[in-house]
Amino acid sequence: MRATVIHAAGDVRLEQVPDPQVVLPTDAVVRVVASCVCGSDLWPYRGANEVTEPRRIGHEFVGVVEETGDDVQLRRGQFVVAPFVWSCGGCAPCRSGVQTSCERGGGWGGPDRDGHLVDGGQGEAVRVPRANGTLVPVDGVDEDVEEGLLKSLLTCSDVMGTGWHAATRAGVQEGETVVVVGDGAVGLCGVLSARMKGAGRIIAMSRHAPRQAVAREFGATDVVEARGDEGVQAVRELTDGRGADRVLECVGTHDAMLQAIRSARPGGTVGYVGVPHGIELPIELMFRRNVNVAGGVAPVRAYGEALRDAVLAGDIEPGKVFDAVMPLDDVAEAYTAMDERAAIKVMLRP
Amino acid sequence: MRATVIHAAGDVRLEQVPDPQVVLPTDAVVRVVASCVCGSDLWPYRGANEVTEPRRIGHEFVGVVEETGDDVQLRRGQFVVAPFVWSCGGCAPCRSGVQTSCERGGGWGGPDRDGHLVDGGQGEAVRVPRANGTLVPVDGVDEDVEEGLLKSLLTCSDVMGTGWHAATRAGVQEGETVVVVGDGAVGLCGVLSARMKGAGRIIAMSRHAPRQAVAREFGATDVVEARGDEGVQAVRELTDGRGADRVLECVGTHDAMLQAIRSARPGGTVGYVGVPHGIELPIELMFRRNVNVAGGVAPVRAYGEALRDAVLAGDIEPGKVFDAVMPLDDVAEAYTAMDERAAIKVMLRP
């Protein structure tokens, strides 16, 4: 089959690789219906994370079960969403809703704990370990699913669940004021999540007109283009000088985190989900103002069923973060578009 | 009157100072019935915080209202608890329960926002600004209150409210496992708070027998003496290898915070209240394991009525953290005893 391999910063290629097989009785093989490029894929692509040897890449996909091991209860042909890590569903962290800390789980595109390759998502098919725990089944949908719905289901693999995690950990309550730092797909899904939780005011920090438009469609009531001191000042002005009840940090840089913490009111909470790169948390400021920092790598599996159902019911259309669709053959172009911010998010179809 | 002045590290003196007066209509003058030395008073005493000029010290006291400004609704003779900061009670942060960020408030022992001195608590009397907002009235008690009850009421001024804040921000739920880092008065009150919130298991980290005894009396089910890697390992062993649901960090040093974060299970929360000194938060570890850090300088005023009522009802006896009582004249000795950890906490009586 064809699958994406990252060789070095800026060097992503679609290559011929072995077809995945069921290796363990808990495995399933899923034929990918759609996958995408994640903001976090850009860290190695941009050289921020070292690529020591060529490796498979991609961790967001939806597809159809093609083959199952003896212990897997999913039927062939079942449409599924794959969260961005695989997890057993039965250990203590999984049962407490932190599947990203699964005692048996791991990530896509590398070896599992027995040394067998787990394919990356940006390919034609994937061996899915711990399929019962990992996959979120979607009934009433097959590979011919309408593109809008497909896009929204695909966001449940990562960005929608991640935005939801930010809003959940920030503790957004009905009527509160929420600032969202970051206008990538996760930030936009954070806006949508804040709206779903009943936020009264949602301030999106964005300086890109197309992203601002999606933010407004998702529920942003205000947009702030300024950053740094001016950005903090702008948020203060919108909140009677006090800051926001909740802030969602959806970037991962030091500047974004500082922006987030400084935008929170005394006693407020920053829900953060951006992979940290160079963040030094200002503990004295946090302490003095009682600003909490909650979050981490999003256990999107925990939210799989609820978000799937909201999508299927038509309550939310997070798929609108996809502003480009490309064939898998053009995966290198998809990376370029994401890297240059020419696209918010690109869906890839094998 | 006599009041305590810190001149430099290690140099604390009881001196003659002017009697406090009502200056503003929102002031009250409170005659101190009891005060105490705080762990945070030891930071300047030990030279960790610079003392640039002699200044009043002490921020925990209970007493009796002696004089009131025209806007003050407290009656003369009213017994009151003074939280460790004064606050208006009416601004947005006060109304949201973060009185430590009061827009009109401040600390004891320095000038108010109009430049008038606010006395420190380790003295015979104190000018209390914003008395309506600041003071917690205690009915049915006067200056002749029995010593055990007096001690418990005095803890509502700081350590009990601070331990309660740690447990509250950590989000302790019924049946959960809680680790408490720090066996000072705040840590011990954290143990008590965890018990009040229904924790199923409370692991106190302490290597001092008298403090361990109080911790057990307050509800600790386990005591861990080890620190660092061994301490983390000991907590893991007590929790099936997983870590605690909630951790209360009641010290403020880097080692204590790291101990706390490493003791938490994936998805757990550290409630921290120790004044941070040299803490660098391990954001990558927090992110990977979804360990939240919540807390800050405790708005004990927010908890004043509830904790007062629990004390008056006899539900809790946090006053047991006081293992020494000294006359105010011996304030320098009280500092020495605290500094050398010869006493957990010293009550001072003018």
Describe the structure.
The structure is a homodimer of 350-residue chains. Chain A has 350 residues and is of the alpha/beta class. Chain A folds into 2 domains: 207 residues, Medium-chain alcohol dehydrogenases, catalytic domain (Quinone Oxidoreductase, Chain A, domain 1, Alpha-Beta Complex); 134 residues, 3-Layer(aba) Sandwich (Rossmann fold), CATH 3.40.50. Helices cover 29% and strands 25% of the residues of chain A. In chain A, strands 3, 5, 6, 9, 10, 17 and 18 form a 7-stranded mixed sheet that branches. Chain A has a 6-stranded parallel sheet with strand order 13-12-11-14-15-16, with helices on both faces. In chain A, helix 5 packs across helix 6, helix 6 runs parallel beside helix 7 and helix 8 runs parallel beside helix 9. The longest helix of chain A has 12 residues. The mean pLDDT of chain A is 97. Chains A, B: This is IMP dehydrogenase. Chains A, B: Pfam families: ADH_N, ADH_zinc_N. Chains A, B: InterPro entries: ADH-like_C, ADH-like_N, ADH_Zn_CS, GroES-like_sf, NAD(P)-bd_dom_sf. Chains A, B: Its cofactor is Zn(2+).
